[in-house]
Design goal:
Distance between the termini: 14 Å
Number of domains: 1
Number of helices: 5
Strand content: under 5%
Helix content: over 70%
Shape: elongated
Structural class: mainly alpha
Order of helices and strands: HHHHH
Radius of gyration: 15 Å
Length: about 80
């Protein structure tokens, strides 16, 4: 579970940086790397980033329910 959280967090960061570049410079890094916005690989990356954001809701909700310092330290019980 920890590896999946790390992977999804990295993908959320990639998505955030991509949106930063779109907002500042109208440059879509994912599209530039993977062959345009409509390219299959770009669409896969977009979907993975979106799914990663949804996945990261779980740790966020845990942090709100048990307190951020405890959540960051990993002191929570699985429900």
């Amino acid at each position: 579970m920890r590896a999946l959280n790390l992977i999804t967090l990295i993908l959320v960061i990639v998505g955030g940086v991509n949106w930063l570049l779109v907002g500042i410079a109208s440059f879509d890094l994912v599209a530039a790397i993977f062959g345009g916005q409509d390219a299959a690989l770009s669409r896969i990356v977009y979907v993975l980033v979106g799914l990663s954001a949804l996945w990261q809701i779980m740790p966020l909700s845990k942090a709100f329910s048990i307190g951020e310092p405890a959540a960051e330290a990993g002191h929570y019980t699985r429900t």
